[in-house]
User: What shape does this take?
Amino acid sequence: MTRLCHQQDLAEGQVRGFDPEGRGQDSLLLVRHQGRLHAWRNACPHVDGAPLAWRRDAYLSADGRHIVCYAHGARFDIATGRCISGAALGQALSPLRLRIQNNGEVHLAPPHPQETNP
Assistant: This one.
């Protein structure tokens, strides 16, 4: 498992990108919404994985209610990842599994076996 942060590092309504593979670009985002942490791939489903943010950690709409793809204007529900308006309507962000340790450390959990490609 890959350590991302401590759960106290993200306040309610805050989002942060991570580059766990060291590629120089955040491949996932972590957001605290209604007390829960949600992890999504930093990839718009509309255009072959285009990054969502227009600058580092700028993933949310101005009112903080939606994740936004700034390249296409698509808006996604924070809790479900489903697109609610814009070019990706009917599509969804790819969720990632998290594991929170007893000490509050947040780790990226491996995918379920059925989620991996054969």
Q: What stands out?
A: Residues 12-96 form a domain with the Rieske Iron-sulfur Protein fold (CATH 2.102.10.10). The chain has a mean pLDDT of 92. The chain is about 0% helix and 35% strand. The beta strands are 2-6, 15-18, 28-33, 36-41, 66-68, 75-77, 83-85, 95-96, 98-100, 105-108.
